[in-house]
Amino acid sequence: MGKATAALFAAEGAKVVIAGRREQPLASTEAEVREKGGKIVALRTDIADSAAVRKLFSETERLFGRIDILFNNAGVFISGKETQDFTEEEWDRTMNINFRGTMLCATYVVPYMKKIDGGIIINCTSVSGRVAQRMQTPYNVSKAAVEMMSKCMALELGRYHIRVNSICPSLTDTDLAAGQIAARGREACAQAHPLQRLGKPMDIAYAALYLASDRASWVSGNSLSVDGGYSSR
Fold it and tell me: Above 90 in pLDDT, residue 233?
């Protein structure tokens, strides 16, 4: 999802910084986008580390002069146990990346957006943050926390002309979901959605593009379902 969104934003003329812990995917995405003429810089960052997040934003401002849009997309998925059987370490890792990392990025970007009298924060959540599911409680809880944080920040930051929204996907055909899709079967996963297909990364990218655009200038505090109709079941 992050790669598709970065490529789409760059194609639309945005100057893009991508961040993550793994060097190879960052370098690959950076090369692909540049080959198509996009302006992009990859910065290796652990978003669960507050010092690293602060450095990410200061370097982004140094490179491009301002920060208008934040797309929070980093995440991990965990499953396979009942709630009480997940270890403290598993809970900590899931919450640190999915919630704390998103919180840190959303927190430390705000001063940069206040400087320019506005901005857009988009947090990627999940239908799992809305619907109880067996055997993956830490993931569901982490995404529910992001949903609520997004709404609270929208209330608080509106007076600074900063819009905060979340995108709420269902099962999307990505590396993160590959294990889940394989375990349940691709066709079964597709049929669980009224539109009878899995999500594609570009489905999420186009939703982010809309929320970041002037066409969504009066949209804030919203959680946009991009889920093939899953949440309407």
Answer: no
